[in-house]
Amino acid sequence: MRNHKIILALAAIYVPLVTAPIKAVDFYVAGNGNDGWSGKSASPTAEGKDGPFATLERARDAIRELKKSGLQEPVNVRVRRGTYYLSTPFRLTSEDSGTEQCPITYAAQPGETVIVSGGRPISGWKKPEQGNIWTTELPEVRAGDWYFQQLFVNGHRCIRARMPNDGYFLNEGPIEPLGDRPKARSDPGTKKGFRFKPGDIRRWKNLEDVNVLQFHSWTASVHWIKALDTENHIVRFTAPANWPTGYWTKNERYYLENFPEALDCPGEWYLDRKTGILSYWPMAGDDPAQLQVIAPKLRHLLQLEGKPDDGKFVERVNFKGLSFQHADWRIASKGPADGQAAHFLEAAILARGARHCAFEQCEIAHVGEYGLWLASGCTDNRVVKCHLHDLAGGGIKIGETYSPKTEAQATERNLVDNCFIHDTGHMFHAGVGVWVGRSSHNTITHNEICDLDYTGVSVGWSWGYASSSAHHNVIEYNHIHDIGRAVLGDMGGIYTLGISPGTRLRHNVIHDVYSPGIGGGAGIYPDEGSTELLIENNLVYNTERGCFSQHYGRENTVRNNIFAFSRTGEIARYREEDHLSFVFERNIVYSTSGYLLLGRWRNGKYRMQGNLYWDTSTEDPDFGDLGFDERQSLGRDTGSIIADPRFVAPDACDFRLKPDSPALKLGFKPFKFDDVGLYGDPEWEKLPKQIVRKPLDLSPIESRGFQQIDDGFEKTAVGERAALAVTSGEESGASIRVTDVTAATGQHCLKLADAPGLKYAWQPHLNYQPRFRKGIAHLSFTVRLEDGAEFIHEWRDASQPYRVGPSIRIRPDGELAANGKLLMKVPTGRWVRVTIEAPLGKQCTGAYTMTVGVPGEEQKRFGELPVGNPKWRSLRWLGFISLADKETVIYLDDVKLNVR
User: Fold this and answer.
1) Residue 80 carries which DSSP code?
2) How far apart are CA 250 and CA 179, in angstroms?
3) What is the pTM of this model?
4) From CA 848, how far away is CA 804, in angstroms rounded?
5) CA 516, CA 525: separation in Å to the nearest integer?
6) Which residues of the chain are under the pLDDT cut of 70?
């Protein structure tokens, strides 16, 4: 069930933006009109012989007739109050264009609410003799002439019968076992189903109509069931997901909908395709016979059908104050239905080859895909003060996923301003508030975008450093909040892709961006080669993983922003590249987690200067790998300080600076936070405040402080990877998996199986990733080398290149050396216990102690062993490596690490 509700006063909000021109041609459309009349008067004459038209199509045709003698004046089609049910989409072509001096406008009559609907009212409800489910019969459905995926009752979306009613089921992984991933990658059928827990999927009635909604990280795929194997608990789909095979895992979330057995609570409905019976369980106290129930019949409501390649455009046509409602979604032949940003969807209003057209004070609601799409060849259009909500997909799409082949195909210079976009992703959860594909020179300003499951604004559609056709886009003064909602990950308030010179992200307020713990949930997220962005004067707070998070990119400028209250670290950089990632200057970074920087910061290919950092939880916060003093000693963050920025009331999200703020001395320039989002009349500005939200149930964040490791692999199933470590190099027969063949203690241990001919000698290996910079680290483990095996264990920091602390090597003949010094021989084929103790940080002496021996026998102690690099200070990588170039086995057990 959706977690918020909103009360709309549309008639009070949607009033004309401008008055009619002094001299214009007016046509009228009304519910009591007649297409045989002249359309010249707002109401029927007393004699009933003339009056308004009855349909928009007749008004359009009257304008075509008028244009035969040439447009001399602007033309207004004034639509009277009421709901106009379309039998086909309202289509305009190049012959329906206006001119710069004589535009054509379709507008609601001042003060009247006009709904253009692609739906049909449902009546004929029968009260049940027992139970709660009302029914009505729809002959068109039974005959195969109509089927719908959505239902709206009294202006609210109803839930198609689903299971479970709240939350998700968790699958048992892909069809191919996880351990046979190479085979899974080569088999296209792998992505066409999964294994499920017994009882979660059953052979329900009309199984072919059941939808499975499977959640990955940054997308959710919609499937139909092709085959069900209840004995082996495998479900197979009619089409694969586009989600990369390598990312398919166990415990992916999913739910099912559209089967009668799931119709088990108020507000749910089900349509039986075979019988034409529509079933609905009304809310308490509701009588369906007294309710307005509407089901959509059309996919598109309005189509502007230019032909850019033929030089034919729909031009100078405006829409004002109209409410477009009730459109359905379509997926052809039960085919693939997923992808980042739900980019494969169309829209209720679809424009192609439209120029200088406008949507002003319009509403788009209760639709099945995106609300509005300005597709190829759309230039210089305006979407202003529009309200888009209750969308099964996303809000607004601009451009295409491919670069234009001709200048006429380019989508450019479009404006989305002062729009309220919210309550999206009801079916296609990856829908974006505003999506800008390969399109340039667009302006997205002063919008309020909230309550969706994925990204607020997405800009660009090029991966890596390939040439891009998305540049000089302006994203400013938007209020983006309450997104992600712990449903999808790897998303952001503003998300960018590719080379984007001239693109500006400025003066946006972004907050409450939460992922479900898979992938990031960032405030501003430059991904996949984002380049030459200006990110300035933004306020970002309350995020899941990074207020600013750059996967990889080049020469971006990040300055004069406020970043605060990320749950897992404030600033992230995830890929090391041999060029300048970004300039990060005069920002305020405010944390409560002890971690200011995330990701990879070793190579120093970035410029950070003049920033103010503050963490309320510790005097010694973590800067990626180093302490602040160590960082500055390397020439990083020159001129930056750790100091309280003196916000007015940060706990109340009041980030204004007090006059004595030390940030001012660093050159930080205060900016306003209250001039973002909607503007205009008070009723419009207050509309977002009417949303009532339930608090998110966010999963607790595991401490990333001085975590202990205590892993005997007993809680990990045989055949699985080590749960607490990173496994690498499983290829060509090499693997690292839990086994029960032997164990030092308990029943399980870890088996490192090496193989000949691997690309790197140091594969396979696994590593733990602690974050220890101070104290005395104490490690113990037991290891057993079989014949021919060679083993390395090593401690590293996170410098670039890394510095080595303690390091031991056991050769095939049993010789054990520490940092190159031969110490002793250990037996092969027997368990050997190793204990290492090393001081960290300021306590470092450049030496460590080690104890080695067979459990139950005499242990040999070695003191003052020199570390690999005298400058080594921190423990960020704890590795176990198999070094043989043949089939060998090493067993590892009882890995324990703590810091005192």
Assistant:
1) P
2) 12
3) 0.87
4) 12
5) 17
6) 1-22, 177-190, 245-247, 625, 702-707, 800
